[in-house]
Amino acid sequence: MSGKPPPDEVLSIDDLHISVHDGAATAVRGITLSVGAGEIVGLVGESGSGKTLACRAALGVLPAGCAVSRGTISFGGEDVTDLSRRGWERLHGTAVGAVFQDPASYLNPNLTVGGQLAEVLRVKRGMRRAEAHQTTVELFTAVGLRNPERVFHQIPAELSGGMLQRVMIAIAISCGPRLLIADEATTALDVTIQAEIIELLKDLRDQRDLAVLFVSHDLALIRELCDRVVVFYAGEAVETGPVEEIIDRPRHPYTQALLRVASVGDFQRRELQVIPGQPPQVGEDIDGCRFAARCPAAIDACRSGPVDLTRLGPGHQARCVRAGDPELAAAAEAELAAR
Amino acid sequence: MTAPITDARSASGTATEPLLSVEGIDVVLGRGWRANHVLSDVNLKIWPGEIVGLVGETGSGKTTLARTVVGLVRPRKGRVTFHGTQISGLRGAASRRERRSGHVQLVFQDPLRSLDPDLTVAQLVGEGLKIRGGVDPAEIERRAAGALAKVGLDATLLGRTPGQISGGQRQRVSIARALAVDPELLFCDEPVSALDASNRNYILRLLGDLRDNLGLPIVIISHDLSSLAGIADRVVVLYRGRIVEDGPVARVFTAPRHPYTALLMASAPSVQHDRPLSVHQLRRTAADPAPPANGGCVFAARCPFAIDACAVQPALEPVPEAGADRWSAACHRHDQWQALARERAAVAAPR
């Protein structure tokens, strides 16, 4: 992205902190990220790392007991951090759309999928019945559903998981949002269907200049789809940068560990790697680096105080005391090259 | 466990006799207009000490095949033979005895739903032994702790319920529950689909260790091909109830003989970007000639290489170059489509 002018910023999150258990603990600690128009940004990390909470905050749908305790969220310059419920209702669909892991649970099993999308169009865009029907069929075609007229009259149980996810994407983009949030949207799908949905997201980005925030625990999937990636660990962004840079030159030991466990994709037999240890409990107070207890390269300096993000290159930052250590960097690159 | 079976296992280092043999299985679920042909003419052999990866998409019959082997589904046709004993035809008390013997264990998908949330880990793991009978409670507890140790879990978890442990630990409890009855064959249904990459690799390594240390043959049902490559000896690909390819991992993943296997490989996400064939070279497009209508090869409707001959379902036949390897594929054009695929455009036509 370095050669191009900065893209038109759609979502901007600054120093976001989210408290959980009615303020008893902090699960997300100081996340800063932005997504520009036509850009796909990936959030990656293991379960419990706070990536889903950050997404839900950006959608204004934090679960009960969770709240933004510090920081701001803004859509195209408009601060939405303390927006009322009514204010969010105005933005849902028109400013931001979302798809989640289990499409069937977001649709009414008794109504036709076309009717459910047409209803959104009639409520949100004030369309009349015939016009809503027409637009629904067009949207179904746009998300690659074959035979959209037939799909219109089918109920969720008659459609496969991949088709339902396409319907959900059609609903998410139906009111022309500038931002699409996809939280583990392909996790439950078969691998061949997953590849098709990934292509669909890329196509939509190209055709509609959509900004996409894509959440996954699989770095390989992020690599296939995203322009930039933010690596989450225990509620913090530990490394962020262009995806090629992160894959080729990871500087944070956690990113390096994630790469070791990700699929290489050459189908050769090699020892399956694991990341030893467990992540800290949510809200646990740790002096210094939160990954130090599992880090093979940890030194005393890692535990002495808070670690800030170090700038390493255009858009590339890592939260590691030894991020600039040439010896460590060389060792990591040699290991990756050997795969 | 009965004595003759133990002897057979110990003598099976270089066995020529398969441990499990599934022959010509047809399974139909539902009746009348609801009848659904889930498995058609499935032949599968599992040899002692091997790890077999069973792959295929949702609805391809992977789980039904596993359930048929353990006797939870009754096949309409064909038979399942374990150690030379036909177990598919057993009825009543004989069937119950076989099931309770625990020779073949199935680890169900999604431990959160298959483990009773009100039972403790100790009760869950010991349940199989308790049902089999003839073991006193102290012994059950000892063996439950032993089974937990085999999967790398601490005995302190014995008093917890499934809701109080992590996802990776629950999956290991499910495996321990199967191991507690000393099975001779283990089926694991999607053991890693709900786990992140690190936990996935941990569980797969654990299964590999079980095979190495206990000589336990394992069938792993999975849709994640690249992690199977790291652990399985043989891969079996199912598509809509039929086995379309079956062979050693090293050969199948180097040069797949069925276009569906190649499509699965091309679709798997990876951190490297050099694939021999892209998905677009293996996916049907509107420009391809129409596949034979009605019947025929199960994959024809999605196959860009289908010809008139594909109106007849091809049999699963040995690949000519297989040599001593047990490698077979069910494709009329198993040696022709690769060249055709390479001629196709590697990127999608603009829509």
Structural account:
The complex is a heterodimer of chains A (339) and B (351). Chain A is an alpha/beta fold and 339 residues long. Chain A has a domain at 249-339. Chain A is 33% helix and 22% strand. Chain A has eleven helices and twelve strands. Chain A has helices spanning 51-59, 85-91, 113-124, 129-142, 148-152, 161-173, 191-208, 219-225, 243-248, 253-261, 326-337; strands at 9-20, 25-36, 40-44, 67-75, 78-79, 96-99, 179-183, 211-216, 228-233, 236-242, 310-313, 316-318. In chain A, the strands form two sheets. An eight-stranded mixed sheet of chain A has the order 6-7-8-3-9-10-12-11, sandwiched between helices. In chain A, helix 7 links the parallel strand 7 (179-183) and strand 8 (211-216). Chain A is globular. Mean pLDDT of chain A is 91; it is low at 1-5. With 351 residues, chain B is of the alpha/beta class. Chain B folds into two domains: 3-239, Rossmann fold, CATH 3.40.50.300; 256-343, no CATH class. Chain B is 33% helix and 18% strand. Chain B has 13 helices and twelve strands. In chain B, the strands form two sheets. In chain B, strands 6-7-8-3-9-10-12-11 form an eight-stranded mixed sheet, with helices on both faces. Chain B has a four-stranded antiparallel sheet with strand order 2-1-4-5, with helices on one face. In chain B, strand 7 (185-189), helix 8 (197-214) and strand 8 form a beta-alpha-beta unit. Chain B is globular, with a radius of gyration of 21 Å. In chain B, 47% of the residues are buried. Mean pLDDT of chain B is 88; it is low at 1-13. Classes of the chains: A alpha/beta (339), B alpha/beta (351). The interface between A and B is large, with 39 and 40 residues.
